[in-house]
Write a structure and sequence with these properties.
The complex is a heterodimer of chains A (326) and B (344).
Chain A: H1 2-28, H2 33-40, H3 47-57, H4 65-77, H5 92-127, H6 132-145, H7 148-159, H8 182-219, H9 222-229, H10 234-272, H11 277-287, H12 290-318
Chain B: H1 15-20, H2 23-32, H3 34-56, H4 87-123, H5 125-140, H6 143-153, H7 159-169, H8 172-186, H9 189-196, H10 201-209, H11 214-237, H12 248-257, H13 266-294, E1 305-307, E2 313-315, H14 333-343
Antiparallel strand pairs in B: 1-2
Classes of the chains: A mainly alpha (326), B mainly alpha (344).
Chain lengths: 326, 344
Amino acid sequence: MKFLLQRIAFYLFTAWAALTINFFIPRLIPGDPVTSLINKFQGQLSTDAINSLYVLFGLDKNASLWSQYVDYWGQVFRGDLGLSFTFFPTPVSEILSQSLPWTIALVGITTFASFMIGTSLGVLAGWRRGSWLDGLLPVTTFLSSIPYFWLGLLAITLLAGPGSFFPSSGGYEPGLVPSWNGAFFGSAIQHSLLPAITILISSVSGWILSMRNMMVTVASEDYITVAHAKGLPVRRVMVSYAARNALLPNVSGFALSLGFIVGGTLLVEIVFSYPGIGYNLFQAVGAKDYPLMQGVFLVITLSVLVANLLADIAYLLLDPRTRKEG
Amino acid sequence: MSAPASTITAVTPEGPEVEATPAKRRRLRFVANPKAATGLIVLGFFCLIAIIGPWIAPYDPSARSSDLIQAPSGRHWFGTTHLGQDIFSQVLVGTRGVMFVGLLAGIVATALSVLIGVSAGFLGGAADESLSALSNVFLVIPALPLIIIVASTIPSAGDLMVALVIGFTSWAWGARVLRAQTLSLRRRDYVEAARATGESTWRIITFEIMPNLTAIIASGFVGTVIFAVMSEITLAFIGISTISEWNWGTILFWAQSQQALAQGAWWWFVPAGLAIAILGTALSLINFGIDEFVSPRLRSSGHTRVKTVDGRSVRMRVGFTPVLGAADVPATPVVRRRRKEEAA
């Protein structure tokens, strides 16, 4: 329990740090891009909306930095992230709440699947060191060196032509209305297959490699020799003795590298015009839509923190030592 | 972008053995590793292109011509763009920007990670607590979105600016690994001995601790360069950094924005992407080389099946002594008797 509380405290601290970074970045912008955008929409913005943008981007030169900071926190807690300029006059929070489920479904599931597949392959590769599985390592290294977005482009060219089963863009059939029915689900799954495969192929090798190296290290531990000497089946030694211990560093590595992976996978959305957070970020960057950019960064960071917390709970379940009181 | 590939978190320097070998032989041993050698050769090739690329490029990368969207041919090895620009020249000229940003960001991030990681590990106490909290925060916050946002708020982000932004946001992994290793080195006998003889803290850090961290620093540097190259290309691809400077990401940006895919112009984005992948693979290979150099166990041994004298093959495994029981010699009587008892 103490472990978990420590982690939660750390994540709260990180969330605070991320929000503070988010507070300071727009204040460091030389010039005043936001003011010019506000002026552009002057006639259409309500006074409230202008005020909220002033607070978010620190345009109110009269207020002290501290009172700006307090106001900013107040707005964030109310879920007010300002108005998007690209999708004027939709509030940023509304856009994000629409696209977040797409990203969580695509990136979340594929990242988890890639971790599971990579880890199991890594267990085999490490256990049977010197077998043909080792020959796969250079191939997977090459695949993991390819940028996600480029692999996506390649996949679209090769697999998604006109008349192909794989659609090349979007999250669902244009005519369908998002709802909880079979037709929509089928279409959504069909659209997510290609991006998901792209992410899987390029992210799986990292897990294979780290798990293989951990298995090689663990395989020479004394307790493995003892397990063999006891006459346990090789399978059991591999799974319950070696893999279980080798898994621990891999899980904590998974938690730590989530930030990297999520950053990369967001680009896949851009290539496939997938209606998720990453595509929002792309649109925001193109249009210099600062409120949307800030909102995207905030949401991504908070989601990664939640994912990290889940990985920590998994670690807690896997490693009995952390459950010990005291 | 991949998971940090390096696994060297706790390296035990084999004191006397390593010191006994002359430095020259050790360096040769690293190059003799086929993975590291391949990686170094490819990296050297890209460095060479980065230096001479703009001079050997057959055309001006921005010059337009009347050959619009042409497939690769003798005149244009990698084909041409929608404006008739030569893609081969663009790739050659773009190498410099990629290598410059990658190496500079790598240097900045490595310097920061050494500074923060080693001082956190060595100083301990409150300094350690706050420095590792700082690096953990930077580790958990998704780096790429942060880089995208920071770079897009800076007007006209050139190569130098992009390199600095990447360098200042991606040092955390290295700092974490270095801190862990410094912690384990700090209480070693030789460090205590140096302290007892009255060496200053700075001398202990630079002459006693740092040499034992070389491998970790090197692999952290290579890892950061991979990340920096990827991030830079990503920034150019989504159109944040200035489009006037050529790099591989800029080529991909134009290919994407001009619908190269829909026009079937595969030559527009394949060369740049392959170049990225090859450079990334080369750097990863160097990192594997460093890993295997430090911990030989990780080497993928080719010959694990060994033929014994009587013609049977045995699979060698780490941690096991193969038992070669000849076929016609019965097993030890103890075992046999126990089997009989069980059967009875």
